[in-house]
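chain below, 397 aa
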Amino acid sequence: MSGDCGATARPEACAVKPPEAAAVRPLEARLQFRADLRIYPPREGGDDRHYTVYDPVSDLSYRLGANELSVARLFNGKRGVVDIGVHLASAHGRHASADKLAAFEKRLLSLRLLTAPGQAELPRLRDPATGISYGPLKAMLMLPLLRMQPEALLDRIYETCGWLCSRAFVLAGLGAILAALSVVLLRFGQFSADVAAVYGTGVGWLLWHYPVVVASIAVHELGHALSCRRYRVRVTDFGIAIYLLMATGWARPLQGDWLALGRRERMVTIAMGPYASLLFAAAGVAVWTPTTAGGAWHTLGVVMAFSATLSLIPTLLPIFNGDTYLALTEYLGVPRLRQRAFQHARETLRRRPHAERVAPRRAALYWSTVLATTLGWALAWACLLSLLSKIAHVQLS
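prediction:
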């Protein structure tokens, strides 16, 4: 799952600060409600009757009432605000002044929900919940492999394999994980030797490594997504990418649905990702244990157990925007903790007024977050560079 919850807001009270007026396109052009936006109806049985408009480009969500959404959809690239006002009056018996419609149009445009056909795109908005990207050079080094709307697939899986979300299966899986850990500890010398044999000779292990880590991250994110489906939380986006030697992925829940859950249920959806990864690694141990060293199945078992576990480490470190960080923000009740912490530090160091007034305990939390994140990032990249250097040395020697 993504490290922080995406912003949800009505256009007139959006958490995203709209661009300055000078940056907004002149409204003489006929604007169009974007066709790629995804519209989610209110959650069944919920008190909130707003629709959610999800922007797949910025990963931002906005809440619109039924009337607001119906007006927004009237911007079709052919009508101006005067035409829309006439249409509302004649077809729906609703009256809205040109000034109000123009203001609504301007707000929608500032949120990038409208576009002018044939004109250059405005700069994309950045999700304020993202904070600081934890992956230096991520934009250049990350190779996207898959991105999809997973709801239809999740429905099919849940209908045919709903037992995957049962308490009995989860408890049985925990038993399998503990059994696999016991086997590795009891035969640690042999397992270590097999890991060294697979990864220490040549580059052939890469042929096993990348398919396995991609499969493991797919299982990881499927754990998040299926648990969301279990609690009737809609998932807006599912994706997998390769980042250096690791795979990364995301399963983004519809924030209104996810935030409507209790804390316990939200924690379950967070925990099911690491659980699925550990179950994948346990399957690798099950393949490794009975097979003969040097064989294809034996190598596959080693890579499944080792690479899948190694790929799980970043999401378990709270210095990254992974599952542990998200669980920590849930436990502390401080959404966007890292972003708030670095903003507080910048304002303090630059002697600027603080946008958020905080108590001494909260300030201490912010400074601890800044210090731990900075040191953690430095150590993580030092370890990664050291690992890459050792791999290169082995290959060249």
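The longest strand covers residues 235-243. Residues 3-27 have pLDDT under 50 and may be disordered.
thats it, cya
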